[in-house]
Amino acid sequence: MQFSAIRPKLLRTINVATATTSSSPHHPSSATTSKRAAEQRCLALFQDHTCNTFPKLAQTHTHILKLGLHNNPLVLTKFASTSSDLDAIDYASSFIFSPDADTRLYDTFLFNTIIRAYAQTSQSKERALYFYNVMLDYGVWANKFTYPFVLKACAGLRVLSLGQSLHGSVVKLGFDDDAHVQNTMVHMYSSCSGGIEFARKVFDGMPKSDSVSWSALIGGYVRLGWSTDAIGLFRKMQMVGVRPDEITMVLVLSACTDLGALELGKWVESYIEKERVQKNVELCNALIDMFAKCGDVDKALKLFRNMSERTIVSWTSVIGGLAMHGRGFEAVSLFEEMIGAGVAPDDVAFIGLLSACSHSGLVEKGRKHFDSMTKEFKIVPRIEHYGCMVDMLCRAGHVKEALEFVKKMPIKPNPIVLRTLISACHAHGELKIGENITKQLIRNEPMHESNYVLLSNIYAKMSHWDKKTKIREVMDKKGMTKTPGSTMIELDNEIYEFVAGDKSQRQYKEIYEMVEEMGRELKGAGYAPTTSEVLLDIDEEDKEDALNRHSEKLAIAFALLNTPPGTPIRIVKNLRVCNDCHAATKFISRIYNREIVVRDRNRFHHFREGFCSCKDFW
DNA sequence: TTAGGGTTAG
To answer: By C-alpha distance, which of A194, A151, A191, A190 is closest to A169?
Structure first.
């Protein structure tokens, strides 16, 4: 951890502070005011909530100097705690730690105030820890209030070794029996990579746990993607009689969202109603996100319309939800409604909007809003925004323009952008360009499996069969492991997970018979398997067999066997749905007269009567 | 005169 880099910045702000003071006139009346009254006047300045921005704070600073209170501890600490934006906090601390400051005034409360200010701001966790070190350097003792701040900062940085050393200090000073400190320790460990076992250990050793302790642990499980276990923890929490609150419910909903478990999500919603958990904005946002990502975007929209108070997250969740379901027009008009309502869009809202334009082929709208993002809203585009634009141009078939766009981008394209370009080159016949980009990408990312799949597809299209065969050998030689595709389906409050060629289900014989039957019906209806999707070096018949064992097809067969005719089927795939499964699912929706909703890694596909809502662009 | 867990995208 590098803390030394912070000093020069502080010194620079000190110069700014001095310049501001010397240029301002000195009022003789201030000098005659009694010290006590000056202090009161100064503290009153901080009651004004508009004073927490940098320019306002600088103005306040001038006043402080005028009143001769630059070394008053009350004023100093109030000064630091008022700040809420990073520049302002830096400014305040540069003032407090200026070379002429009276170091005898430094106490635990003063440091706690500064550490808290930095720990609460997302980009300044390092500075919180830096000032913790400064505090120790000055020989000022940390108390039980210091550690929740410091541990929180460490959680944000996700550095396990640092957290362990703080844990050591906590034990040494005897604060490890304090409930707040214990809960923050669970949170810290559960946020650090590789720390979940430690979090569990602290949690298990706690004499008493409350909803905060459970939420800290459940949150860790959710962050790791251990959603099923997170739900399991929630059930256990109920069993031991700890009442969940709105934050616990946000986390539980987040786990449902990850699993795509709509029925479970609905149950959680009714639980919230039944238990009268306070439905604040954040909980409503989590509900909206859950419904949108579990396939019921209309319900998400309804909840959104009924909200009395909305934040940018509410708008973004529902806009992103519509985009994901291919309802780009509605997403764009909701975005425009948001601006009309006076809510300023942020960078995330623009990602939702641009991805809506991309998924629905709204190229002109996309260009217009991308332009307004930089010019009107002064948001600097990140690689994700450029990525959306490239994706949008590629889907619309403007491959040449997309290539030009990438060349002109002020930032280096990341592998995601390059893969988008390569897929477009493959789809629109720019094979040579696609091959070159892929080779370059493989040099940068030699262990990324999908780069080889892309190259293999390009060679197949170029009819370079020998080169295509070689790719498999290269992959084997490098010992690359493929992320196994898996599909989940929810049935009677249980979640079933399938992987390719799965035989772990009790029903597996019937499932494979059903897959066979589906295959016969599909062929009769004119479906031809897309065997070029299969990377393995095997003959055509075996390839067909490999496709039939894809996890999506197994899950659909399972659903056809276990649900009444005519009921919709909802499945969740961990990767992008493959070409062949997409084509097959269209046929299945018609032949078996089922609406099939597929959530893949990127978006939703609604299959109905032989068609998909994505109009074959995904 | 200070304290703990949460939501959008990638």
So the answer is: A151
